[in-house]
Amino acid sequence: MDGKGLVASRLTAIRAQLPAGVNLVAVSKFHPVGALLEAYSVGQRVFGESRVQELMVKHDELPKDIEWHFIGSLQTNKVKYIAPFISLIHSVDSLKLMQEIDRQAERNNRKIDVLLEVHIAQEETKHGMHPSALFELLERGEWKSLNHIRIRGLMTMASFVSNEVQIAHEFELAEHLFSDVKKQFFSGDESFNLRSWGMSDDYPIALLHGANIIRVGTAIFGARE
Predict the structure, then answer these.
(1) Which one of 14, 99, 153, 200 is most buried, counting C-beta atoms within 10 A?
(2) Among 72, 71, 164, 157, residue whose Cα is nearest residue 121
(3) Treating both helix axes as pointing N-terminal to C-terminal, what angle do 33-41 and 52-61 enclose, rounded to 10 degrees?
(4) Helical H runs in 84-163?
């Protein structure tokens, strides 16, 4: 386990490198509440979790001014548990999931922000819609009748490789895809402005290709417990 102050110093160092307007999500999955409190003590307020049960426990135990992001694969039957408090769901990959988030948001008298997860990596194990499926979903237009969600942008992951040229190419694809989707479907919507790509190993490259949300875990908290 990290020594006292290591989380805080890592976090402070990363934040010092970030351009204005970039939001850092501290990916806290599998890390204990004490590590999150250390990050909180130096001003971190945005945390990302990928398991509903773990998120619910941490939400109950930690300060209520934390902005929780859900970044993992989300099953429709679990949406109801996080709908009362979640700030942003990064991993929306189907109309069915959008409809369930909308339904649960309405039950909680909320509007929930979401990102559409797109698959641009060469690794097939990554989640998300392929670009053709994304355009097909948006062109069909059923999402326009969902009044309790707000589509804020796109999320993606690059391949987990050491080849920085490949990673840069994939993030560049994501950047162009965001521009195309914005132009075609959200041209008048100023709230469609979030580009969530880049993690501990590749966020410096992501920042060169339009990312304004980065999801960083290991570089802040160390190896998972």
Answers:
(1) 153
(2) 157
(3) 60
(4) 95-107, 131-140
What single letter denotes the amino acid at residue 70? F
DSSP line for 167-207 = HHHHHHHHHHHHHHHHHHH-TT-TT--EEE---TTTHHHHH
CA 143 to chain centre: 20
Q: How far is Cα 192 from Cα 30, in angstroms, rounded to an integer? A: 31
pLDDT in tens, 116-160: 999 998 866 668 999 999 999 999 999 999 999 999 999 999 999
CB 46 within 8 A of CB 69: yes
Helix (H) or strand (E) holding 25: strand 23-27
d(C-alpha 135, C-alpha 170), whole Å:
18
Residue 91, both tokens: 């991993």
Query: Measured between alpha carbons, how far is 9 from 7 in angstroms, rounded to an integer?
Result: 6
Length of the chain as a residue count = 225
Q: Give which of 34, 79, 22, 33 is closest to 59, Cα–Cα.
A: 33
Helix, strand, coil percentages (3-state) for the chain, rounded to 5, are: 45, 20, 40
Q: How far is CA 205 from CA 58, 110, 154, 178, 202, in A?
A: 31, 35, 17, 17, 6
Predicted confidence (pLDDT) per residue in 41-80, tens digit: 999 999 999 999 999 999 999 999 999 999 999 999 999 9
